[in-house]
Inverse folding.
């Protein structure tokens, strides 16, 4: 097929800056479409969050209430998972949540590049969360942080459980980054495959051209689903980060 | 059978992982709804757990996708 559904994930220099910006050693550094869209996301996010609450009104305007709603949402999430102590991580969780939400949202624009469909981005976000959790745990509990892997049980059960807990802890960065990356990748590939059906059917002529309406309608439905997934993945990423950080704070005894 | 063909078949087989993922998500949401209908007052408090369960189930399918991608693009 002429239309490759994977082509949209290609990281390439933007068309108006095809030459490398500078070199590090012998590796050329380009201004890529990924960097471009990430800048757009960060710029619009900063503008949205600063301008909307600039004139803090008692009766909020629409944009102000939207900003307050997202603040309240993340605050409620942290309060539920890690209690009042978790609020020292509020800036981290809020930044991650809003960044992922905006990346996923902007990615659904037809011309846009989805920043979160690159595993390097999601893995970097995950690394920040996991390293914060590990450092917090060791600073707060010292070597007692290793009690995270120990479960109160008879020794014969405990030894394999410690091993399992350790493996599960090591799999966290992989699972957290994979989930966001694969969801974005699968969703956008699915949309492009459906778009390929529309084009092939439309070009076939006769009765087939009329049949192209079916995948077209499906694209509309799938786009709506993708908006749900975009929000849901940002939510899931944030809530799992909260849980990991809460475990580092409180070990196993629930707050 | 040459290696490329075997890789393509393997990638197709790897997507079977989504069977389990689908069953898991169905169980999670089905049980949530049946629980919520019995005790609607407690439903909203379990919303977080619902989506954590959903995310964990979905991940198992996505590992299959990961294997398919590794087979296709390496």
């Amino acid at each position: 097929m002429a239309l490759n559904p994977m082509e949209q994930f290609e990281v390439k220099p933007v068309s108006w800056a095809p030459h490398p910006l500078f070199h590090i050693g012998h590796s050329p550094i380009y201004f890529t479409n990924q960097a471009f869209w990430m800048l757009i996301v960060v710029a619009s996010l900063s503008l949205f969050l600063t301008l909307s609450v600039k004139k803090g009104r008692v009766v909020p305007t629409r944009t102000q209430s939207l900003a307050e709603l997202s603040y309240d949402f993340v605050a409620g999430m942290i309060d539920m998972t890690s209690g009042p102590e978790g609020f020292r991580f509020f800036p981290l969780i809020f930044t991650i949540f809003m960044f992922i939400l905006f990346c996923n949202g902007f990615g659904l624009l037809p011309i846009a590049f989805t920043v979160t469909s690159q595993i390097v981005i999601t893995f970097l976000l995950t690394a920040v969360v996991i390293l914060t959790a590990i450092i917090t745990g060791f600073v707060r509990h010292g070597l007692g942080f290793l009690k995270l892997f120990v479960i109160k049980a008879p020794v014969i059960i405990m030894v394999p459980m410690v091993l399992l807990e350790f493996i599960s802890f090591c799999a966290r960065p992989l699972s957290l980054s994979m989930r966001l990356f694969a969801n974005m990748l699968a969703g956008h590939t699915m949309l492009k495959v459906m778009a390929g059906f529309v084009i092939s059917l439309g070009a076939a002529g006769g009765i087939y051209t009329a049949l192209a309406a079916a995948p077209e309608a499906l694209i509309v439905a799938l786009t709506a689903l993708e908006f749900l997934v975009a929000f849901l993945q940002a939510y899931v990423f944030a809530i799992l980060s909260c849980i990991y950080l809460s475990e580092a704070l409180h070990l196993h005894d629930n707050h | 059978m040459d290696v490329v063909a075997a890789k393509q078949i393997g990638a197709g087989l790897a997507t079977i992982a989504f069977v389990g993922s689908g069953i898991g998500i169905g169980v999670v949401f089905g049980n949530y709804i049946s629980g919520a209908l019995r005790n609607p007052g407690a439903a909203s408090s379990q919303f977080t757990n619902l989506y954590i369960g959903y995310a964990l189930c979905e991940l198992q399918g996505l590992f299959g996708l990961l294997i398919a991608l590794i087979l296709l693009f390496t």
The two ends of chain B are 18 Å apart (CA to CA). Helices of chain B lie at 3-14, 17-38, 40-43, 47-73.
